[in-house]
């Protein structure tokens, strides 16, 4: 293993039962490295790329308190420690003067967030991992799911242990899971995101804790058997506001607003959204206030959504995910992702 750019704590021991005190003691972005039984192999878990997504950190803290000894070397990154510690705890996606770290993993790596992303990418290559799992919470409440940029047996075997859905995307946003396409050193490494569920859902921490236990106990993730049903959905579209468009969340339409989304639209993160379901209300611009471009840059919003008597509806049965009720995230990131309810493939 080559030298790492970020600080390293080897074989960490938790001395603070209070999560905030523990994070303060870390001082900032840091690698926690547990040597394990087989030091020739390394697995990586990254978490806290977003400071308001705590499940991975809470699970890690609890797991470390048990004094684990993993089967292989395990390197765990706590990335946006400063964002997580911004008051109130675990409510800020990033610091006030920062950028969304999970949009910075590609050139030109501008500003402090870009520099941190570049250091993380360098360290991942230096660790020579056989697997990278990036832990997140969903922006709204909903079930756990996995996201990857390609299909891979290790990804599918692990994802099938913790969720029922794997989304394979060709969108390129500058996220950590895209690094195998950017860095030859990681080209063959299975990298995927595990969205554990909403930040306030107890089940989300259980998913993250399960991942740490599995990576600690299992020597070969590719050999996992008895994988439950895993639905694989490919090429989701990212539904965003057009520049200058406005959005609010309410139970009735708001005048003078381009889009009023249903106050509990995150309920659509489960199951299939049928065309008769009302997603919200549209202003004078109609669906023109929205955009959904595919991986080739083609506009596809009219294939997904339509206006009916001033209301927003799905044009066909869709699976929605990452639907948020946070207007700040809706404006700065996206409203939700959508894909046809007909899956492209599945595993049993």
From TrEMBL:
Pfam families: AstE_AspA_cat. Keywords: Hydrolase, Metal-binding, Zinc. Its cofactor is Zn(2+). InterPro entries: AstE_AspA_cat. The keyword tRNA-binding does not apply. The keyword Amino-acid biosynthesis does not apply. Transmembrane segments: none annotated. Residues 49-143 form the Succinylglutamate desuccinylase/Aspartoacylase catalytic domain. It comes from the Bacteria. GO terms for molecular function: hydrolase activity, acting on ester bonds; metal ion binding. This is Succinylglutamate desuccinylase/Aspartoacylase catalytic domain-containing protein.
């Amino acid at each position: 293993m080559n030298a790492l750019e970020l600080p390293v704590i080897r074989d960490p021991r938790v001395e603070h039962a209070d999560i905030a005190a523990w994070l303060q003691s870390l001082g900032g972005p840091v690698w926690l490295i547990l040597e394990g039984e087989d030091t020739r192999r390394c697995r990586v878990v990254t978490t806290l790329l977003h400071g308001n997504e705590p499940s991975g950190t809470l699970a890690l803290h609890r797991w470390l308190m048990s004094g684990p000894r993993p089967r292989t070397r395990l390197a765990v990154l706590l990335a946006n420690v400063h964002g997580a510690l911004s008051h109130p705890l675990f409510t800020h996606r990033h610091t006030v003067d920062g950028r969304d770290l999970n949009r910075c993993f590609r050139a030109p790596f501008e500003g402090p967030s870009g520099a941190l992303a570049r250091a993380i990418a360098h360290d991942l290559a230096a660790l020579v991992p056989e697997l990278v799992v990036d832990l997140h919470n969903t922006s709204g409440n909903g079930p756990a799911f996995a996201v990857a940029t390609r299909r891979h047996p290790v990804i599918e075997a692990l994802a099938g242990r913790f969720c029922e859905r794997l989304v394979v995307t060709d969108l390129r946003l500058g996220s950590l899971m895209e690094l195998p396409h950017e860095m030859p050193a990681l080209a063959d490494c299975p990298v995927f995101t595990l969205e554990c569920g909403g930040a306030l859902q107890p089940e989300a921490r259980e998913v993250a804790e399960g991942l740490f236990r599995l990576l600690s106990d299992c020597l070969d993730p590719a050999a996992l058997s008895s994988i439950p049903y895993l639905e694989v959905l490919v090429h989701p579209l990212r539904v965003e506001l057009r520049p200058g468009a406005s959005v609010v969340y309410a139970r009735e339409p708001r005048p003078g607003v381009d889009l009023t989304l249903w106050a509990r639209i995150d309920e659509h993160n489960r199951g299939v959204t049928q065309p008769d379901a009302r997603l919200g209300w549209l202003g004078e611009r109609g669906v023109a206030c929205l955009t959904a471009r595919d991986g080739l840059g083609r506009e596809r919003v009219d294939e997904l959504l339509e206006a009916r008597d001033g209301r927003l509806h799905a044009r066909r049965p869709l699976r929605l995910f990452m639907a948020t009720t946070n207007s700040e995230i809706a404006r700065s990131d996206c409203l939700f992702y959508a894909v046809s309810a007909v899956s492209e493939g599945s595993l049993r």
